[in-house]
Amino acid sequence: MNKTCSPPTRRRQHGAALLTAMLTVALVTTLASAALWQQWRQVEIETAERGRSQTRWMMTGAMDWARLILREDAVSSQGAAVDHLGEPWALEVQESKLSTFLSQDQQWQEGDAEVFLSGQITDAQSRMNVMNLLEDKKVSPKALARFAALFERLNLPLSELQSLATQLQATAQASAEGAANSPSAAGSPPLMPQQTAQLRWLGLSARTLANLQDHITVLPEATPVNLNTASAEVLSASLPGLDLASARQAIDLRQRGHWPSLNAAREALGAAGRQLDDKQHSVQSRYFEFHGRMRIDNVVQQERALVRRDGSQVRMVWRVASPQQRLQAPLQ
Question: Angle CA(140)–CA(287)–CA(151) in degrees, nearest 5?
Answer without folding.
Answer: 40
